[in-house]
Each structure stands twice: as C-alpha cells, then as structure tokens.
C-alpha cells in the first residue's frame, strides 16, 4: 500500500511503516525516546513493535490504564511529571502505541509538554486506524464530556500496522467498523454498499486504507474544521451525548465509541429524513444495517432527558445553536443544521420502534 500524504506528515502501512520509522529515527537526533502504552498494548503489541526497531536505541516505556474513563487531565499530569522526572526535553520524541485513548491523550501530552515535542502515532485498534490516524486532533475528556480539552497538532508520522488488529476482540472491531460505515454515509454511497456486504474482518486491510483516504481528503480541504470537516461528525452530536451519558451512569454498561455512534447515526438519520429530505428507503437501510451489527440500546425517558441535556456541550455548537450534520442522500451530507426540539423525542421513538 502506498503511503497517504496528509498536510505535514504521511500515514505509512505495514512494512513501509517500520521502514519509515527506522529511517526517521536514524535521521533525527532525539535526546530521548518514550513510548506511551496501556496495559493491553504493553503486552500484545509492544514486543513486536520493539523487535522491528533497528539499532541500539533506548526507549522509556510509560504505561497508563486503558479505557475512556482514564482519558483525563489526571492521567496527563502523571505523564508530564514522569517525563519531567526522566529529563525529557524539547528534543525528545514520544511514540503513542495504542487505541484512540492513547493516541488522543498521548498527542495532547506531547503537544503541551515543554510547549510541544515531536510525537508519532501508532494506532492499534480499528477505530484508531480509521479515525485518529488523520487530522491531528488531540485531547482529553472533561469528566464524562468527550474531548472538551485539546489542540489540533500534527504528528511526525502515523504508522498503521494491521497485524495489531489480530489482538482485538470482535466487539472492538465492530466499534471501529461503525466509523468506516460513517465514511460511506458521508462521502461515498458505493463504499457504504461495499462495507454492508462484509461479513468478517478477515480482509479488512484494504478497507482500512480506503477509509483513511476518505478522511484524509476531507481534512486536507479543511484542517481546522471550519466547514467541510464537520461532516466527519455525522452521528456524533447525539452519539457523543449517548456515550458521555452511559460513561457517567451507574445504571448502564459503558458503551464503546462505535456502539454509541451507531445509535447516533440512526437518530441523526431520522432527523435527516425529517429535515433535509433523506429518502425513507435510505433511512430504513441505515437503521437496519446498524441494528444488524450492533445490539439495540435501551433508553428510559429519564435517560433521553439526560442525554439531551448533554447536547449543549457539543464542540460544533456556536452562538447558542446546536449544530448537526445531516444527510439529504447517502453520501451527501449537509452541515450546520438546527433541529426543532420535539424531533429529538421522535428520533428516539423511531430508534426504539
């Protein structure tokens, strides 16, 4: 697979990824090298990764606890203090080896330590490969509120090594697949149809590549999310609210990102049907596709009220308006749409029906 060139870096795949990394390490004069992992990637991915690194280089391994609940400023403070105690300076390099929590948080830590040190992302989950690999978004959650604190800052490179996907459970793969389905919905109806036909993840490598291409094309046109990049948030306005609500709830099992976004895409598909003219047949297609892959989530009336109360924290909001990305057809999104409040309840009723 050819490397995908973004604004100031490239996404490298498979053997080319390790070649690019070794060339970069050889050509650079880093004062110290760090790898951020969680307990899963420490065990499942770090050994293979280290075996592919050439030369007699010393890396300090910094381990954090896995899970969205640990994507917070407390974890960042621990890492900043550890980096300082190990004499990291502005000529250090941080490699983030993990899923979206590690790459988002690790990128934020690198971007803010000493006002910024170089970092490389090595996404190890399907979600991180197709979502966090492009765009330079870094950050952490504020309590249960998703990605409220962060900066857009580009890595030196991104390395996508699909063999790491073999370490994942089916549920984690399905979570990442939701973002791939989203790429079809917002950009390419043919890609949507192709992904719908996939029954296993045995031949996912080329589709990962296709999704990275789609996201990269969008980000290159709008690096700081002023207009078209917003389309990548389809399903995320309500989906993030669902995810945040379940994250803080003591009465519900925490949802994975893709599971919450799958709910959000059905809900926002319904809003698209009502507001921007998405054909009913395409709405039914969206709902049936996601419900065939993702377990239906139960919502009480109190849950729905709690979820809707979180919408005011969405990052796309401006001037007091809650802004949605909707579809007028599969593959054709429209940004900055406001929704009459009564339609929220209708959307949840449609989901539950």
From TrEMBL:
Keyword Metal-binding tagged: yes
Alphabetically ordered keywords of this record: Cobalt, Lyase, Metal-binding, NAD, Nucleotide-binding, Zinc
All copies of domain 3-dehydroquinate synthase N-terminal, residue ranges: 62-174
Cofactor: Co(2+); NAD(+); Zn(2+)
Domain 3-dehydroquinate synthase C-terminal: start-end pairs: 176-317
Enzyme's top EC category: lyase
Single Gene Ontology BP annotation: chorismate biosynthetic process
GO molecular function: 3-dehydroquinate synthase activity; metal ion binding; nucleotide binding
NCBIfam families attached to this UniProt entry: aroB (TIGR01357)
Physiological role: Catalyzes the conversion of 3-deoxy-D-arabino-heptulosonate 7-phosphate (DAHP) to dehydroquinate (DHQ).
Protein name, UniProt field: 3-dehydroquinate synthase
Organism: Maribacter algarum (ex Zhang et al. 2020)
Classification lineage: Bacteria, Pseudomonadati, Bacteroidota, Flavobacteriia, Flavobacteriales
